[in-house]
Amino acid sequence: MRCAVSSSSGQVLANGKLFIQTDEDGDLVLVFQTDRGTIIPGGKVDGNGDLTEASQELFRSFFRAWGMSGITLTAQSSSR
């Protein structure tokens, strides 16, 4: 899924894709990869598919990456 990460002032910090990958333990993890190739890991996806904890961890990783809170992740639609 194509996404943009923006600051609270509206500045786009990164464009990239949001996806789920399997980690070395076989768990599913929510991940954001920027168009420049930086991987920002989120948390593990619950067994029932709930992304709440995984997305909360992803936003904590955004804070560590950019040093700011109030970040917005927006999905971008495509006409393809």
Provide an overview of this structure:
This protein is of the alpha+beta class. 19% of the residues lie in helices and 41% in strands. It is built from 1 helix and 5 strands, in the order ββββαβ. The protein has one helix spanning 52-66; strands spanning 2-6, 12-22, 28-34, 39-44, 72-75. It has a 5-stranded antiparallel β-sheet with strand order 4-3-2-1-5. The longest helix is centred in the last third of the chain and has 15 residues, at 52-66. The mean pLDDT is 93.
Considering DSSP H and I runs of 4 or more, what fraction of the residues is helical?
A: 10-25%
Any idea what the radius of gyration is? 13 Å
Structural class: alpha+beta
> Main β-sheet: number of strands, strand sense, barrel status?
5 strands, antiparallel
* Count of β-strands: 5
User: Quick check: average pLDDT?
Assistant: 93
Count up the helices: 1
Taking the alpha carbons of the first and last residues, their distance comes to: 13 Å
**Order of SSEs:** EEEEHE
